[in-house]
């Protein structure tokens, strides 16, 4: 199977950070390893790759274009700018769900610090851009601590995804590890359980699956 031109893919990776003041922030343990592994696999498959990444210590594949961001709002604006021109969006980034409503302009001293911080939601990047989905193939990720498939299926439907890759946190799966265990779900009843493997291997498998699913869709549409 081949497409008439290289597929253009936007991949998000890593954590986001929401500032409390200039030296404190709210974040999560994501390292970006899964997203960067997918980006390398996509480059190796001949795709054109835009990598939108929160703060990590990883080196991006040389052939991709890196867009570094910090906050969820910054990630939204970058993905929003790239979305209409892409064929595939793969959202692996662990975007913080809430942010301080009024971050401070200066470092707050310990003795003066408020122990209660008023929070507000961070924009749901995937749900927002998926509302203007046309022919793009959308892949989301869901990291859960329980009831994995029910939560993943809810996210799949709410965000109009073509696939979702879900994993339970812990037991050889999840943040900061070199391996992962994924359950891949689709809206048509597609379900595959991928056993523990390196994130590099899973990245290659995911890129191959997306390629296959896109070709199946093209065949069904008669194009």
Automatic annotation (TrEMBL):
A biological process from GO: coenzyme A biosynthetic process
Gene3D superfamilies: CoaB-like (3.40.50.10300)
Highest taxon of source: Bacteria
GO MF term list: catalytic activity
SUPFAM superfamilies documented for this protein: CoaB-like
Signal peptide (residue range): none
Pfam family, any one: DFP
InterPro entries, per the entry: CoaB-like_sf, DNA/pantothenate-metab_flavo_C
Domain DNA/pantothenate metabolism flavoprotein C-terminal, chain residue ranges per copy: 8-211
Protein's name according to its UniProt entry: Phosphopantothenoylcysteine decarboxylase
Species: Puniceicoccus vermicola
